[in-house]
Amino acid sequence: MSEKNREGKRTARERLAEERDRQRSADKRRRALVVGGAVTGVLALAAVIGVLAANAGDGEGDTAGPLTAPSGAGGEDSLAIPVGEESAKSTLTVWEDFRCPACKGFEDGYRSVIHELTAAGQLRTEYHLATLIDGNMGGSGSLHAANAAACAQDAGKFPAYHDVLFQNQPAETDDAYARNSRLIELAGKVGGLATGTFEKCVEDGTHNSWVAKSHKAFQGGGFSGTPTVLLNGKNIYEDRTMTPAKLKQLVRRAAEA
Fold first, then answer.
1. What total number of domains does the chain contain?
2. Which residue among 92, 117, 188, 246 is least crowded, i.e. fewest CB within 10 A of its CB?
3. Burial of 13 (0-12, 13-18, 19+ CB in 10 A)
4. Is the Cβ–Cβ distance between 198 and 187 less than 8 Å?
5. How many CA atoms lie within 13 Å of 252's alpha carbon, on the beta-carbon side?
6. How many Å apart are CA 75 and CA 128, to the nearest integer?
7. Burial class of residue 54 (count of CB atoms within 10 Å of its CB; 0-12, 13-18, 19+)
8. What's the confidence (pLDDT) of residue 18?
9. Other C-beta atoms within 10 Å of 162: how many?
10. pTM of the entire structure?
């Protein structure tokens, strides 16, 4: 091997190491922005930093096959999974990655409020799935988990399975969701989901190409990282005082207007 080739490989390794160091630093900053409300007992999320979103790997994994959107998907190019009534006056647009720790932080803090407002017919949430962590950290857990969530949507079980995936999220460096067996095991926590049809959908990667298209839309959206959360088109992280209680107040105010 020539000295030039050895130098090129060494430089590539150094760049990879630097990217991983930057990702770890960005993740620490994101987690630091999930703060506890000592008085209200709720979480508030500040701005999310995802500096590698634009220049990291594409995180698409094995996405060969036809593009098959999950049942009921809507929005532009059928890339959104909607939860809630169409008549709701407020829409929450959420871009998430099932391997993303900051996404889990958002879900743990805001889950109960989102469920409450959805049940009241005041909020409709449109979920968009990304595979950012696969690209940044390596692996395919983001892709496989997103495909499994889309399979759950086919079965009418997306909201519950979505919550189960975040509640059981492995450590960011543990690509446990790359194992379809783990995703199928977790389906057992959702009544009526662990069926042969669901298992086949997961094993076949039925929605892998759809997930890849969703991630490309995320990359092209100019977003800084995951989670990206928009309330009626406005990024909630622009408001540094945002809390679940404030989100509830804004949604209820819109519903009463």
1. 1
2. 188
3. exposed
4. yes
5. 12
6. 10
7. exposed
8. 59
9. 25
10. 0.79
SS3 sequence of 205-244: CCCHHHHHHHHHHHHCCCCCCCCEEEECCEEHHHCCCCCH
Domain span at 214: 3-256
CA atoms within 13 A on the CB side of 121: 2
Q: Side chain identity at 219, as an amino acid letter?
A: Q
- CA distances for 162 relative to 68, 127, 142, 166, 188, angstroms: 19, 10, 13, 7, 13
Q: In the structure encoding, which two tokens stand for residue 19, read together?
A: 């990217």
150-203: pLDDT as tens digits: 999 999 999 999 999 999 999 999 999 999 999 999 999 999 999 999 999 999
Residue type, 57: G
Residue found by looking up tokens 């959420």 in the block: 94
Q: How many other C-beta atoms can be found within 10 angstroms of the C-beta atom of residue 112?
A: 12
